[in-house]
């Protein structure tokens, strides 16, 4: 795996064309692993009863072969829902799930719409001061989900920029041991301060609710699980949606005929979101799961205790499941019933808890953005956009756009 990240699609297509639904990979630090790339194989793997998330199943880690500062170690060792199994997983998930019920998510809609309009004003202002060009990722795609998840958690605005920077460091795969350890220490320090603030001044937020659950029943949520849950919520709660919005704007700008279909009402903004999730998944290869026994999958044996990456970006373009035109961006695909449903938000017991919120944020963001700026386009060629320095996140680091004509109202 290239620690510097880059666009995954060419390598994915080559491997899938060669029949490699499951393939060996070399992780940073020469750690042996596997990746599941095929849609059907990944769907089976994500829900397999003999596949675990707990780090105690990671053989090389358990035997002391993984050093401190390994760039992917946080994915394995952070204490929270993504590294818990069975009863522990159900316990942790139940504590958080109340904040993401359909009713609670729908109650957030007016706030998301208000924040979206404010950010569009800020985007227009940034473009006015930048010869008509502004970084859409910085001024719009980032502050929308970051602001929403921080409001849910009761995190003050003063922490948001730093938390985003630290999130980027934690998901990066190209940084050294000292940087990785420093980012984790600082993230824990910031979140500890957030938790301490909520203990002193509880509010109507998820952090306060988690603290109350711990105090009411001390064995339900340990201090480490509280901080681990906050870390996971911060990272997953904004990085995925940030990449989703960014990738959707890139896709629609690069396929103007598809954008015109949506603007003309021949497809919905939700269709554009779902097709982006399939075609350019916001997460490329997600760490880790571990077989609890030698496991044969798609004709390949994955040895017990191997760290396995979930290849969401590959599965989304697997022609065996999505048809011969899987590499084509088509917002009408879902309405036509073409191909399998994507797996980009997971499958099985660890299906993304925040999926309804991510879909709502992205749908509102795209509808308001392109209604207000229907001629918005990339200010540089796609090939010149700098990619994430990570094979986990799948997007670009900046998205300079030109707001081609003056706004005609806010739609």
UniProtKB/TrEMBL annotation:
InterPro entries assigned: Cyt_P450, Cyt_P450_B, Cyt_P450_sf
Superkingdom classification of source: Bacteria
SUPFAM superfamilies: Cytochrome P450 (SSF48264)
Family: Belongs to the cytochrome P450 family.
The name this protein goes by in its record: Cytochrome P450
Species of the source: Streptomyces chengmaiensis
């Amino acid at each position: 795996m290239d620690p510097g990240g880059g666009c995954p699609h060419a390598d994915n297509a080559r491997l899938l064309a060669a029949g490699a639904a499951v393939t060996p990979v070399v992780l940073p630090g020469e750690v042996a692993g596997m990746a599941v790339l095929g849609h059907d194989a990944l769907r089976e793997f994500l829900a397999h009863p003999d596949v675990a998330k707990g780090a105690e199943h990671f053989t090389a880690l358990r035997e002391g072969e993984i050093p401190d500062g390994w760039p992917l170690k946080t994915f394995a060792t952070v204490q929270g829902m993504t590294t818990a199994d069975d009863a522990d997983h159900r316990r942790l998930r139940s504590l958080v799930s109340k904040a993401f019920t359909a009713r609670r998510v729908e109650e957030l809609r007016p706030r998301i719409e208000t924040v979206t309009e404010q950010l569009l004003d800020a985007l227009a202002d940034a473009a006015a001061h930048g010869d008509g060009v502004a970084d859409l990722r910085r001024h719009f795609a980032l502050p929308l989900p970051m602001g929403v998840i921080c409001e849910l958690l009761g995190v003050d605005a003063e922490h948001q920029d730093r938390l985003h920077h630290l999130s980027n460091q934690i998901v990066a795969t190209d940084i050294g041991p000292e940087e990785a350890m420093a980012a984790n220490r600082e993230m824990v320090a910031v979140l500890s301060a957030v938790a301490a603030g909520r203990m002193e001044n509880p509010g109507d937020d998820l952090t306060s609710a988690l603290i109350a659950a711990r105090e009411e029943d001390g064995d339900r949520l340990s201090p480490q699980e509280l901080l681990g849950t906050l870390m996971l919520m911060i990272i997953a709660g904004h990085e995925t949606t940030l990449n989703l919005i960014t990738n959707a704007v890139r896709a629609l700008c690069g396929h103007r005929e598809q954008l015109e279909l949506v603007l003309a009402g021949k497809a919905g903004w939700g269709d554009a979101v779902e097709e982006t999730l399939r075609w350019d998944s916001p997460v490329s290869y997600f760490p880790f799961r571990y077989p609890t026994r030698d496991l044969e999958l798609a004709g390949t044996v994955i040895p017990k205790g191997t760290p396995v990456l979930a290849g969401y970006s590959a599965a989304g373009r697997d022609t065996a499941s999505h048809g011969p035109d899987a590499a084509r961006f088509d917002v009408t695909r879902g309405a036509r019933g073409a191909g399998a449903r994507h797996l980009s938000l997971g499958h099985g017991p660890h299906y993304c808890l925040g999926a309804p919120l991510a879909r709502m944020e992205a749908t509102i963001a795209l509808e308001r953005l392109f209604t207000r700026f229907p001629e918005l386009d990339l200010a540089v060629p796609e090939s010149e956009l700098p990619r994430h320095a990570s094979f986990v996140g799948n997007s670009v680091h900046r998205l300079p756009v030109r707001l081609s004509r003056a706004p005609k109202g806010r739609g």
